[in-house]
Amino acid sequence: MKKQLTLLAFALLATLAACAADTLPPKAHPDSAKWDNLIAPDLANAEFPQGIWYVEAGALTASKDEAIWSKKDYENFVVDLEFKTAPNANSGVVIYTSDKQNWIPNSVEVQILDDWGSKWAKVSPTWKCAGLFGRLAPTKSVVKKPGEWNRMTIWAKGQMLYVMLNGELVTQCDMSKWTDPKKNPDGTDIPAWLSKPMASLPTKGKIGLQGKHGGAQIYFRNVKIKQLDPG
Q1: Residue 77: CB atoms within 10 Å
Q2: Residue 3: φ, ψ to 5°
Q3: In 3-state terms, what secondary structure has residue 15?
Q4: Among candidates 37, 21, 18, which has minimal Cα distance to 29?
Q5: Among 44, 130, 135, 183, which is most buried by a count of CB atoms within 10 Å?
Q6: pLDDT digits (tens, 9 = 90+) for 50-82
């Protein structure tokens, strides 16, 4: 009987861990070890300019500012990944992309930034790491110093977005509130190149990782994805 109860307890814990990714707002990073690879180790399920993206010491990186994209379109999902910045790195995870050739106004970018870098000391708070670039600042900066691995999880369910960085939920967004192409709901300016209101963007599209932007390297590993129940 004791052995049966122990097995039952393990099964229950496994079930709870599997369901954790579907709980919103999220409380912790999910157990994503058995999830699908958003970007496969051989890059076979991705679209990218040849010769730009490559694997170095087990990490995915790029030699130029060119994005790598999922071949599939995704709707209602969780992306879980690790990233490491070089000093002054500026990158991002790009979701809901309906036009990968002109992705900046046609997507939502979850920002990756070396918040420690002097280059970014005076930028808008909406540029800070784990915020929604140009639209919503994270509640706090928790990104680690360059050279250290960070963990980021993004929950995207319709127009509700949640971003957890290094164990802390720092960004929550209802896209439907962003109806003005020039002003955020709090009255701050939206960069001119984000020319479409976030409320008008599709909530299905390709997912991308931005490459070497501004001359600073960015590294990714364990880039995983899970589909969420649309209900």
Answers
A1: 18
A2: -65, -40
A3: helix
A4: 21
A5: 130
A6: 899 999 999 999 999 999 999 999 999 999 999
Q: Within the chain, where are the H helices?
A: 2-20
Q: What letter would DSSP give residue 184? A: -
The one-letter code for the residue type at 151 is R
Structural domain 24-227, CATH architecture? Sandwich (2.60)
Q: Classify residue 42 by its DSSP letter.
A: T
pLDDT score of 215: 86
Q: What is the DSSP string of 105-169?
A: TTSEEEEEE-TT-GGGTTS-GGGSTTSBTTTB--SS--PPPTTS-EEEEEEEETTEEEEEETTEE
Domain ranges of the chain: 24-227
* 103 vs 195: CA distance, rounded Å: 11
**pLDDT (average), residues 28-49:** 96
**Residues contacting residue 10 through CB under 8 Å, at least 6 positions apart:** none
If one compares 65 and 6, the residue with the highest pLDDT of the two is 65
The closest alpha carbon to 108, from 88, 130, 86, 123, belongs to: 130
Average pLDDT of every residue of the chain: 92
Q: Which two structure tokens, joined as six digits, stand for 192? A: 């001119």
